[in-house]
Amino acid sequence: MQHSSQPVLRDIVLVGGGHSHVGVLRRFGMKPAPGVRLTLICRDTHTPYSGMLPGYVAGHYDYDDVHIDLRRLAEFAGARFLSSEAVGLDRQAGQVLCSDRPPVPYDRLSINIGSTPQLAGASGASDHAVAVKPIHRFNHRWLALLERVRSATNGLRIAVVGGGAGGVELLLAMQYRLRSEMQARGQNPDRLQFALFTRGQSVLPTHAPNVRQRFARVLAERGVAVHCNAEVTAVEAGGLQTRDGQQHPADEVVWVTRAGGAPWLRDTGLALDDNGFIQVTDTLQTVTDPAVFAAGDIATMINHPREKAGVFAVRQGPPLARNLRFSVEDREPQPYRPQRRWLALISTGDRYAVASRGALGAEGRALWRWKDWIDRRFMARFSDLPPMEESESSGPRSRVALEGEEARQALSAVAMRCGGCGAKVGASTLSRALGALQPVERDDVLIGLHAPDDAAVVRIPPGKALVHTVDFFRAFVDDPYVFGQIAANHALGDIFAMGAEAQTATAVATVPQGLEAKVEDTVYQMMAGALEILNDADCALVGGHTGEGQELALGFAVNGLIDDRAEDIMRKSGMQPGDALVLTKPIGTGTLFAAHARLATRGRWIDGALQSMRQSNREAAGCLHQQGATACTDLTGFGLLGHLVEMTRPSGVDATLELSSLPVLDGAEETVAAGILSSLQPANVRLRRAIRNPGAVKDHPRYPLVFDPQTAGGLLASIPADRADACVRELRSLGYPHTAVIGQVSAQGEGLEPIQLNP
Ligand SMILES: Cc1cc2nc3c(=O)[nH]c(=O)nc-3n(C[C@H](O)[C@H](O)[C@H](O)COP(=O)(O)OP(=O)(O)OC[C@H]3O[C@@H](n4cnc5c(N)ncnc54)[C@H](O)[C@@H]3O)c2cc1C
């Protein structure tokens, strides 16, 4: 997470990680705009580069060759990456509405969400055809089709709907790959039949006649049945129907045509063209609202309409970046005129390409190699990220233009603040942010946020004892909503590990200084995330304190309730020799986030870690308690080994850990192997003196992971050995799929080192 000392004065929000926005992010990464916070909202963490997609399908590239890692690029750009889908705009409030998180405010908005396949025009197509976009769904279906072909004993009929460059290129790539797969398995590739359907009179209607002829020839040579003037009107299981009423059998129907704008744009009030694409001027600002920009397929430049192609989206990146920057600096955005002609290099699947430019056409293997070189060079711009330019000095010298009242606020926001109560975030900011939130209500809360007072008053029901814990840490993710979720989950972990139910929580937070509205939103986003987790745990938020600080940080004091009989409390000290050690979540968060800060992870690894950190330990604790756990703790900062020693010591036992059985987050072994460790690791490594056989395991690739500090980690418990398998099965069925027996407890030996590590 890149920290900026600049107060946030303006928010530029990018919706969609398309070909234009990746260029914007890179440019802002190389030259940050002081006072501007960039936020990317995208439903994909890895966005495909369209030029190489057919090559991926053909098997010439792997997944990472053809996808841009948006999480990593955003990190480089100092931008917040919000993994979500935009579903609407509230332009009056200046907010993007999202499918699964609170609205995201903007000062300037840019939309680059590509086009959406229009399957509604053909009955049954939504259920029985697979659209290439969104790409993650296509990839899933494509991998499933590959598997089917690998195990097929019968023939397969594949129909591609769409005779443009995308459809033809995709068909040829699929055919090349599937035939190669069958040949490699000693199967007859001729059992695969391909058909192309287009409503046009020929394939590639927007290209020159000689290019169309070349492709007609290639398709004929490859035995593809081409159906022109054949608009598909219906798709059903096993086939499709064309407008002339003819039925055509097909086992798989791939849809690469009739794209339009996303349906949710219709309710935004933005002017759209007949296909639902956003109308923009030469500055890439929407004709309706100068604060809203659009680029790529989703935008139609009213003065320069062009084909929907990735090449235009890419070229719009630099002018879009410039105009967004100008716009927040109150400078006049500059017009941009897209080129009229462009070179298209269209591959035929087999490392061979046809070039098309205006009336010109050519073909050959050398053209494919040239295309490959161009495409790889493009992708390298987003994987080999250049060093960043130093940002300019902070505060009032910021180039972002603010006037009048705004300027007064900005200056007071960046003025020196005193400590003590002066460091408190303004009461109205806090109450507005919290006022929009609804903590769960409990009968045992007498005075809480519903009737705020100097302190909360909470009843402890008869027969219950109070379990009390506190946790606090600084944000390690740039999304305050996700950070709030994880901070709350982390704090609740101690309560659940004791076998208690959560009752109430008070929050303490620090928020970097800034404009009141920005601070308010950060508090709101963070507390909305936290509240979602607290409410889910039936834990009432009853109060809190928010102050200004260098960094965003959040913690909770949490009260829990437990039956006051000692046997119901899951302690660290009850381990019995012979018990099995069970761990409910994978480890590796420390190394992964250290690597993320150095741009040395893959976005999907961080997605996996965040998903794990957001998962509550509540149900796992209930299950462990029921299965007769003799001891339990939640894994946090001391790492697996530290927490295990905290259990073996008071229990008076030794333990053995099987390194090969440890559940590990995707990517953690790679980042540890690259020598990237959390800054807390050295303190944890001091505990290696508890290991009986360090010499035997110190070179094991998983050895460093036993010291890796965890955030919102899983539960580590000792379970009577005869119940361990059933317990693991149940935990997996409860949604903890990585649960594993990771070792055993044994009687205390003579030596001073309680832990044996087996490879
Ligand atoms: C098989 C195939 C091959 C092609 N080959 C070429 C080629 O060689 N050259 C070429 O120029 N063009 C090619 N095209 C066309 C090209 O794919 C598109 O023109 C290009 O992808 C458009 O880019 P974009 O930036 O507008 O959006 P996209 O690349 O589609 O990116 C949009 C991004 O926004 C995200 N998104 C969408 N909706 C939302 C939402 N509501 N909230 C948040 N995020 C959202 C998506 O997940 C995606 O990451 C091809 C198309 C196909 C189907």
The profile of the biggest β sheet is: 6 strands, mixed
List ligands, each type once.
Answer: flavin-adenine dinucleotide
Number of helices: 22
Percent of sequence in beta strands:
15-25%
Helix-and-strand structural type: alpha/beta
Mean pLDDT: 90
Helix percentage: 25-40%
Low-confidence stretches: 388-399, 411-423
CA-based shape? globular
Strand order of the largest sheet: 33-35-32-36-34-37
Q: How many E-type strands?
A: 37
| Rg from Cα | 29 Å
Distance between the termini: 34 Å
Overview of this protein structure:
The structure is a single chain. With 759 residues, the chain is an alpha/beta fold. The protein has a 6-stranded mixed β-sheet, sandwiched between helices. Helix 1 packs parallel to helix 4 (70-77). The longest helix has 21 residues, at 516-536. Mean pLDDT is 90; it is low at 388-399 and 411-423. Flavin-adenine dinucleotide binds at residues 15-20, 41-44, 47, 50-51, 53-54, 85-86, 112-114, 132-134, 166, 169-170, 256, 262, 296-298, 308-311, 313.
Structural key phrases:
binds flavin-adenine dinucleotide, 23% strand, single chain, 33% helix, alpha/beta, 22 helices
Condensed summary:
The protein has about 750 residues and is an alpha/beta fold. Helix 1 (about 20-30) crosses helix 9 (about 310-330) and helix 13 (about 480-495) packs parallel to helix 14.
List the helices and strands and how they pair.
Layout: E1 10-15, H1 19-30, E2 36-42, E3 46-48, H2 53-58, H3 63-66, E4 67-69, H4 70-77, E5 80-83, E6 86-90, E7 95-98, E8 104-105, E9 108-111, E10 116-117, H5 125-128, E11 129-131, H6 135-151, E12 156-161, H7 165-184, E13 192-197, H8 209-221, E14 225-227, E15 232-236, E16 239-242, E17 247-249, E18 252-255, E19 259-260, E20 278-280, E21 292-294, E22 299-301, H9 310-328, E23 344-347, E24 353-357, E25 360-364, H10 365-383, H11 404-414, H12 427-435, E26 445-447, E27 457-458, E28 464-474, H13 480-497, E29 501-511, H14 516-536, E30 540-548, E31 553-563, E32 580-583, H15 589-597, H16 603-614, H17 618-626, E33 631-634, H18 639-651, E34 653-658, H19 668-673, H20 681-685, H21 694-697, E35 715-719, H22 721-733, E36 740-747, E37 755-758
This protein binds flavin-adenine dinucleotide.
Flavin-adenine dinucleotide (FAD) binds next to helix 1, strand 2, helix 2, helix 7 and helix 9.
